[in-house]
From TrEMBL:
Lineage: Bacteria, Pseudomonadati, Bacteroidota, Sphingobacteriia, Sphingobacteriales
Recorded name of the encoding gene: glgA
The protein's Enzyme Commission number: 2.4.1.21
Pfam families: Glyco_transf_5, Glycos_transf_1
InterPro entries: Glyco_trans_1, GS/SS, Starch_synth_cat_dom
Top-rank EC class of the record's enzyme: transferase
PANTHER family in the record: ALPHA AMYLASE DOMAIN-CONTAINING PROTEIN, GRANULE-BOUND STARCH SYNTHASE 1, CHLOROPLASTIC/AMYLOPLASTIC
Keywords in alphabetical order: Glycogen biosynthesis, Glycosyltransferase, Transferase
Catalysed reactions, as listed in the record: [(1->4)-alpha-D-glucosyl](n) + ADP-alpha-D-glucose = [(1->4)-alpha-D-glucosyl](n+1) + ADP + H(+)
Pathway entry: Glycan biosynthesis; glycogen biosynthesis
Single GO MF annotation: alpha-1,4-glucan glucosyltransferase (UDP-glucose donor) activity
Name of the featured protein: Glycogen synthase
Length: 472
C-alpha cells in the first residue's frame, strides 16, 4: 500500500505546532508496519533544510488564474528521517521563510495543491491513499473528483485528518478563478455560507475523515465555527484516532537534548538534576515544584488567562511554586506575561519564541505541566510530559479528556478541571501541590505516567486499518 501524507508542516523541517510532530512521526511508524508512507510538503527557505542533501526529481508548469507558475520538486532520502519526503517549490509562493502569516496564504495553498496534483499526474505517481492534513490541503478531495485535468486520478482514496477545526481556510469567491478548472455544476461542494471553505469541502468530498482524538470528534458536532450540522450529517464517515509520540525523539533515557538521562527507576534523581540545571538557566530557585506552560499564546490554548491564573495563585501561595513559560503568538498575551515576569522575578521565568532544546529540558525538569485549553483536538504536550514523569494539569476536553485521568479516578495520574474558570484552574493547581506532599504517592503516579504507552505504534496501526477499509 502506498500512502502520501500531504501537509504544510513536518518536523524537523518546518514546525509551528503539533501538526509538524505528527507528520514527522506517523509515516515512519507506518513504514515499520510495511506501508510505503511518504510526505509531500511545501519548500521553505529555512536553515533546517541545509542539513539535507536535496535531489531535484521533477519540474513542471501550471496556470493559476492567468499566471503561469513553475514548480520544482525536491526529494530528501528515507535514511534521513525514516521516510521519503518531497518538497514543492514555487517561486514567489512556496519559497518563503515562515509557514504562516502571509496575506496571500490562500494563493500559497492553492499553488501547493495544484502543483502536487500536476506532478503526480505527469510523473505517473499513483498512491493508493492521499492522507490530507488540515484545511491547507482540503481542496484535494474535491479536485480529484471534479477537477477537469485530474479525472485520471479520481480512483485514489482520500482521508482528511483534522488537527484543528478552528481554522478552515475561508476564501472569498473572487479567489475561485485561481483554482484549477473544475466541473462548475459542483461549485456548491466548495461553498459554505457564501465563501470557499476548503475544510468543509474536504469533509464532504473525502472518502473518510479522522480527528486526532475520539473526544474531539464528538466535540466538533457541538462547536466548529458553523459546521456542527455537517459533522452530525457525516458522522458515519468520521473516525477518532488519538495521536502518539515518537519515542525515538521523546525518551528521557536517551534524549540528546537534556543534560541528564533517566528512566522510571532513576526518575527521582534524574529529574532533580535536570531541574537544578534548568532552573539555573532560567534564573529560578530549584527548591519548589516547577510548573511549566509550553505552547502558542492563543485563546484556544487558554494563554489569555494564564497571567490572571498565576497572579491569583500567587496572591495566596507564592512560596509553593515556580513557573516557566515557553511560547509565542498573540502580542498582547506576551506583553501580559512579560509584566508577570517583572512582578515575580524569582518565581516566574519565560522564553518567548520557539526553542526545541528548551522544550525538552523543560519537560525533563518540570514537576507539572499546565494546559488550560479552551479547545484541544488532541494535545501532544501532555503525552510528552507523561513520558518524562511530568504530571499534567489539564482541562477535560478533546484529546486531554482521552489521555489524562484525574487522580480521583481509579488508576488516575493527572489533575483535571472541567470549567474554563480562573478559580477552578487555581484550585486544581493547589490540589496537585497538596498531593505532591505525600512523596510516596507522588513517586507512584510519576512512575505510572512514564509507563503509559502513547507511542505511535498503536495509532499507526489504526490509520492503516482505516486505509484498508477505504480500499475494500
Amino acid at each position: 500500500m502506498k500512502v502520501i501524507h500531504l501537509s504544510v508542516e513536518c518536523y524537523p523541517i518546518a514546525k509551528v505546532g503539533g501538526l509538524a510532530d505528527v507528520i514527522g512521526a506517523l509515516p515512519k511508524y507506518q513504514r515499520k508496519l510495511g506501508v510505503d508512507a511518504q510526505v509531500v510538503m511545501p519548500w521553505y527557505d529555512k536553515p533546517s533544510l541545509q542539513q539535507f542533501d536535496l535531489e531535484k526529481v521533477a519540474e513542471g508548469v501550471f496556470l493559476q488564474g492567468s499566471q503561469s507558475l513553475t514548480y520544482t520538486v525536491y526529494a530528501i532520502a528515507e535514511q534521513h528521517l525514516g521516510f521519503p519526503i518531497y518538497l514543492i517549490k514555487v517561486p514567489g509562493l512556496l519559497d518563503r521563510n515562515e509557514v504562516y502569516g502571509y496575506a496571500d496564504e490562500g494563493e500559497q495553498w492553492i499553488a501547493f495543491q495544484h502543483a502536487f496534483l500536476n506532478w503526480i499526474l505527469t510523473d505517473n505517481i499513483r498512491p493508493d491513499v492521499i492522507n490530507c492534513h488540515d484545511h491547507h490541503v482540503g481542496l484535494i478531495p474535491f479536485l480529484l473528483q471534479y477537477g477537469n485535468d485530474f479525472r485520471e486520478l479520481s480512483y485514489i482514496k482520500t482521508l482528511f485528518t483534522i488537527h484543528n477545526g478552528q481554522y478552515q481556510g475561508w476564501m472569498n469567491w473572487n479567489k475561485g478563478i485561481l483554482l484549477p478548472g473544475f466541473d462548475t455544476w459542483k461549485w456548491g461542494l466548495l461553498d459554505w455560507s457564501g465563501v470557499i471553505n476548503p475544510f468543509s469541502s474536504a469533509i464532504r468530498c473525502c472518502d473518510a475523515f479522522s480527528t486526532v482524538s475520539e473526544g474531539y470528534l464528538e466535540e466538533l458536532s457541538q462547536e466548529c465555527k458553523g459546521l456542527e450540522q455537517l459533522f452530525i450529517d457525516e458522522s458515519s464517515r468520521g473516525f477518532g484516532i488519538v495521536n502518539g509520540i515518537d519515542w525515538d525523539v521523546w525518551d528521557p533515557s536517551s534524549d540528546p537534548l537534556i543534560p541528564y538521562h533517566y528512566s522510571n527507576i532513576t526518575v527521582k534523581t534524574g529529574k532533580r538534576k535536570n531541574k537544578e540545571a534548568f532552573c539555573k538557566k532560567a534564573n529560578l530557585p530549584s527548591d519548589s515544584l516547577l510548573l511549566t506552560y509550553i505552547g502558542r499564546f492563543a485563546e484556544e490554548k487558554g494563554a489569555d488567562i494564564l497571567s490572571e491564573v498565576i497572579r491569583n495563585f500567587y496572591s495566596k501561595n507564592e512560596k509553593k511554586l515556580i513557573i516557566f513559560i515557553l511560547g509565542s503568538g498573540n502580542e498582547q498575551i506576551q506583553q501580559d506575561l512579560e509584566l508577570l515576569c517583572q512582578s515575580y522575578p524569582n518565581r516566574v521565568s519565560a522564553f518567548f519564541g520557539y526553542n526545541e532544546t528548551l522544550a525538552h529540558e523543560a519537560y525533563a525538569a518540570s514537576d507539572l505541566i499546565l494546559m488550560p485549553s479552551r479547545v484541544e483536538p488532541c494535545g501532544l504536550n501532555q503525552l510528552y510530559a507523561l513520558k518524562y514523569g511530568t504530571i499534567p494539569v489539564v482541562r477535560g476536553i478533546g484529546g486531554l479528556k482521552d489521555t489524562v485521568i484525574d487522580i480521583s479516578e481509579p488508576k488516575g495520574y493527572g489533575f483535571v478541571f472541567k470549567e474554563f474558570e480562573v478559580d477552578k484552574i487555581v484550585e486544581t493547581i493547589e490540589r496537585a501541590i497538596e498531593f505532591s506532599l505525600d512523596e510516596k504517592k507522588w513517586a507512584s503516579i510519576v512512575k505510572q505516567s512514564m509507563a503509559l504507552d502513547y507511542s505511535w505504534d498503536k495509532s499507526a496501526k489504526k490509520y492503516i486499518e482505516l486505509y484498508n477499509q477505504l480500499l475494500k
